[in-house]
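Appendix B, example 12.
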Amino acid sequence: MLVLTRKLNERIMIGDDIVITLIEVRGDNSVRIGIEAPRGVKIQREEIVISVAEANRSAAEAGEGAEDVLKKLFGALPGAAASSASDEPSTGE
């Protein structure tokens, strides 16, 4: 990890097309930075990425009886029986 000291309004360049500017130093041990980067570069806060990943893992875990609940939900949809019959190959008769 490269560690740099910067003063207010000083910049850090990453490659030719990413610029980080120190915008504000606050008294609560935080700083505001500005990031200039091409649109295709993802810029994300680590804590948000971690939070979303944890939420996705939790949502993906199926509890007991989840299969039965899904079967009831999808079986209760209008047209569920009709669509299953239309999925069978036609004999042309």
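Residues 11-74 form one domain. The helical segments are 46-60, 66-75, 80-86.
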